[in-house]
UniProtKB/TrEMBL annotation:
It comes from Nestor notabilis. Residues 10-61 form a coiled coil. Belongs to the CENP-O/MCM21 family. PANTHER family: CENTROMERE PROTEIN O, INNER KINETOCHORE SUBUNIT MAL2. CDD domains: DRWD-C_CENP-O, DRWD-N_CENP-O. Its main location: nucleus. Keywords: Centromere, Chromosome, Coiled coil, Nucleus. GO terms for cellular component: Mis6-Sim4 complex; nucleus. This is Centromere protein O.
């Protein structure tokens, strides 16, 4: 009896430690999210100030609003000033850069939920027209399409959209990696995913009255700038109890609202798997 009580006391202590760690992580995440929002506001304010300064400078110099109508030297100076202002604006948003002899080199740092992941580099030429010289962006990111739409008209928008694509991609990949790392004992077989990680297919086990029923999951991320799925299908075999069918519906809702590994942790801690 004493041994059993000691075991229960140890389990209670471990549960309390885990709960405390979870609360600390949630508090840290809340602080990071608040800091991100604060930095975004600062970025917007800086961008508004830079836009106003550029407008005043152009009016002061008697230049037209269209830089293409200026002489080549004036166009080059206008581009350099714009790039310098842009570097200042994006410094607080995970996008850094420096001027080069031929243009500017940007570094886009990606993160997911406070965890810094990969950095991607983009070297732009600006002497004649703005174009991409070299880069480390993965081939499955639609860089050419984004460049065609924004690069010549709005470099800030181009970098912002590209950053959204990259951060969403690394976020989806991070979730899949976390699932395989921490819940491999519950995953049946191999988690299937494509290069962009916008389609995930895997099986996981559910137990009911000493019987195990495999669930099949298909997650489709229709929005390339989002790290949560737009379409979720969770299915089980026809001979599964009706209670598991209801559970599959609940899990489907969790997969839509929460990161993949957090959804698993949620119903795993509840003893459903």
């Amino acid at each position: 009896v004493f041994a059993y009580l000691e075991m229960l006391e140890l389990q209670a202590h471990e549960a309390a430690v885990k709960q405390e760690e979870k609360l600390l992580q949630e508090e840290k995440l809340a602080r990071l999210k608040a800091r991100v929002e604060e930095l975004r506001l600062q970025r917007d304010e800086l961008q508004a100030k830079v836009d106003l300064q550029e407008k005043r400078q152009l009016e002061k110099e008697g230049a037209t609003s269209n830089p293409a109508q200026l002489n080549p030297q004036a166009v080059l100076q206008w581009k350099i000033k714009s790039l310098q202002a842009m570097l200042q604006v994006f410094y607080l948003t995970g996008i850094g850069g420096k001027l080069t002899r031929q243009g500017v080199c940007f570094c886009i740092s990606t993160a997911y939920e406070g965890t810094y992941l990969d950095s991607y580099y983009l070297d732009l030429l600006t002497k004649s027209e703005v174009r991409i010289y070299r880069h480390s962006v993965p081939t499955f990111i639609p860089l050419k399409q984004i460049a065609k739409q924004y690069l010549q008209t709005d470099i800030r928008r181009f970098l912002s959209v590209l950053s959204d694509h990259l951060n969403a991609y690394v976020g989806r990949r991070y979730q899949a990696d976390q699932l395989q790392e921490h819940f491999s004992d519950q995953i049946k077989g191999t988690l299937q995913r494509n290069s962009l990680c916008n389609l995930l297919v895997f099986n996981y086990n559910m137990s009911s009255k000493s019987k195990t029923f495999p669930f099949n999951v298909r997650l489709l991320y229709g929005d390339p700038c989002c790290s949560l799925p737009t379409e979720v299908i969770v299915s089980c075999k026809s001979d599964a109890p009706s209670s598991l069918t209801e559970t599959a519906t609940a899990h489907s809702d969790l997969f839509r609202r929460m990161p993949l590994h957090k959804a698993f942790r949620s119903f795993s801690s509840a003893g459903e798997t």
